[in-house]
Design a protein that fits this description.
The complex is a heterodimer of chains A (151) and B (429). Chain A contains four helices and twelve strands, in the order αββββββββαβαβαββ. Chain A is of the alpha/beta class and 151 residues long. Classes of the chains: A alpha/beta (151), B alpha/beta (429).
């Protein structure tokens, strides 16, 4: 979505609102990147580029840098938090995290990323949010507001 | 918000120093993220504290780019650099980046080795034991049933929970480093009784009675149950430490299993009822001859060329029993001129292998016994490697994908034969 389209969309009533539990507080606005595949950190993400590199992942080759990453949960090596921590250093971190299944990997990763993060939703974000939607993630208030892209 | 004891309030207020204060701040953020109500005390922590390659240290150049800077800013995720004292908990360093002697053979640069040496000295000076292994339970850190631990390394976590009945979540670098200072970890997940109950059943219908079969069964189970807790019963026999080690590593890689029950075998599963603990029973999966063959084929799907130029054993790190076995298989033979054999273990087990003459037997055959790391962790394989043979389902899951090479899975004997002949002849019996 272009900056102008975002500005236009933002003035309108959101197309949907989802409530969840705050994992890491904060409030940001940005574009959604949605995947139904769980995400591996070590061996699954390149911290230098912010790209998913797991071979059979549906987002293989796609960067989450600056996006609101919407995913089911974390999997794989205990190096998950370290890899996402490195994306923060490299400037390739996601803007916010929305995930369904709480694990120690996802919790610690969100904490050291220091980005607004929510879980335990009243409705499944994977059913509602589409890649490219504009989201306002107000983790502090436990609320996501979403706008579909303008035609 | 997580509830704090008086002692934890005092740590947060800085009464035990700035580093412990920063550790508590991070652990509180982590506990609140999980939704934990309180902390458990732990005096058994295993992680990778403060070690960092030069490119990470570069990010902290303005803070001196040293161990203190990395530990403060990365490990404790603190906004300022503080002095890092000796750790307060029994603390262990897991696997690292290279062999301390054979790093040249692994293709490491002098600069990378200097960085490794300097980090290692800092780790020891901070009171952290240099186990340098993914198998702490074979190198001097054996938890007991009910002990609250804070461990990284998925294969060690599943072993601790399932085989020993110790209690740990799959922790990360930052949480383990903080726990080394604060001796606390969130009371969540596997620390709690209700989280340790079985969720799905696996019926084993073909005999699973050696390490190769246990590894395949683990890979199958992880693929079916993903990251839930399986209850396994049936034709599984002859449990041993190395069989559990390979089963758990495989299940943790293919699915993310952090705990399993084997009825009549693991300590929290004296019977099926106890393993499920009254919880709802989910699906039932069956491991029969067809499933076994499918698993074997999946594990060998990245193998095409039968000219093997590298054989790697020791994932997870080999026990002394496995090294002795490999040495007996290769005694009097030679690694083929077109191939190489590297075996990985911990430093303490290598000392035993040295004393028993196994290291020398391997050396005479042209094989190398290495410590600290493995080919996946260090991304080090012999130069020009295109086809690897492995006796670990976990390693065949990771190494070919990471290095862009082919990989075969077979028995230890298949692998030793491949190293000596340069040819893969493994078949499913």
């Amino acid at each position: 979505m272009s900056g102008a389209a975002m500005a236009q969309a933002r003035g309108q009533t959101p197309d949907y609102i989802i409530r969840g539990r705050c994992v890491v507080p904060g409030c940001v606005e940005g574009e959604a990147l949605v995947t139904r595949d769980t995400i591996s950190g070590w061996g699954g993400v390149s911290p230098m580029t912010g790209k998913i590199i797991e071979s059979r992942h549906e987002l293989n080759g796609v960067s989450f840098a600056g996006k609101v990453l919407v995913f089911p949960g974390a999997k794989g090596s205990s190096g998950w938090s370290s890899i996402f921590h490195m994306t923060r250093l490299a400037g390739t971190a996601p803007l916010a995290l929305l995930f369904n299944v709480m694990t120690t990997k996802a919790a610690l990763g969100a904490v050291v990323l220091r980005v607004p993060t929510l879980t335990d939703f009243d409705r499944d974000p994977l059913e509602i949010i589409r890649s490219g939607d504009l989201l306002r993630v107000d983790a502090t208030q436990g609320q996501i507001s979403g706008w579909r892209p303008m035609a | 918000m997580v509830k704090l004891t008086g002692r934890e309030e005092a740590m947060l207020a800085g009464e035990e120093g700035a580093a412990v204060q920063k550790a508590m701040e991070l652990l509180i953020r982590y506990a609140d993220a999980l939704g934990a109500e309180d902390f458990v005390e732990t005096n058994n922590v295993a992680g990778v504290p403060g070690s960092a390659p030069p490119w990470i240290k570069q990010y902290y150049a303005a803070d001196g780019g040293d161990y203190r800077a990395v530990f403060s800013r990365f490990d404790l995720d603190a906004d300022e650099v503080v002095d890092i004292p000796r750790m307060n908990a029994f603390s262990c360093h897991l696997q690292g980046g290279m062999d301390p002697m054979l790093w040249r053979e692994q293709g490491m640069s002098e600069a990378a080795f200097d960085n490794f040496r300097s980090d290692e000295q800092q780790v020891a000076e901070h009171g952290i034991q240099l186990l340098k292994t993914c198998t702490p339970y074979l190198a001097g850190n054996v938890p007991v049933m009910g002990e609250h631990c804070a461990w990284m390394e998925s294969s060690a976590v599943i072993f601790c929970n399932s085989v020993i009945g110790g209690r740990t979540n799959c922790e990360g670098r930052e949480s383990t480093s903080a726990a080394m200072l604060a001796r606390r970890i969130p009371n969540w997940g596997f620390h709690r009784d209700e989280y340790r109950k079985g969720q799905h059943s696996v019926n084993v219908a073909v005999p699973v009675d050696d390490v190769f079969e246990w590894g395949m069964l683990g890979y199958f189970v992880g693929g079916e149950v993903q990251d839930t807790i399986p209850v396994i019963e049936g034709a599984i026999a002859a449990p041993s430490l190395i069989r559990h080690k390979h089963f758990g590593a495989a299940a943790a890689s293919s699915g993310g299993v952090e705990m399993y029950h084997m009825v009549g075998i693991t300590p929290e599963a004296p019977g099926v009822e106890a393993a499920f603990g009254g919880a709802r029973r989910g699906e039932t999966f069956r491991y029969d001859a067809a499933a076994r063959r499918r698993t074997y084929e999946t594990l060998n799907s990245v193998g095409q060329c039968e000219d093997v130029d590298y054989v790697m054993l020791g994932c997870p790190h080999y026990s002394i029993e496995q090294i002795a076995h490999a040495a007996s298989l290769i005694e009097g033979r030679k690694v083929h001129s077109n191939s190489a054999l590297w075996i990985f273990t911990s430093r303490s087990v290598k000392a035993l292998a040295d004393a028993n003459g196994h290291t020398e037997t391997l050396r005479k055959a042209g094989a190398l016994l290495m410590t600290d790391t493995c080919s996946a962790i260090s991304q080090a394989v012999p130069e020009g490697t295109r086809v690897a043979a492995l006796d670990s389902a976990k390693q065949v899951h990771y190494l070919p994908a990471m290095m862009g090479i082919e990989g075969w899975y077979g028995t230890t004997a298949d692998c030793i034969d491949a190293a000596c002949s340069g040819k893969w002849r493994g078949r499913l019996a």
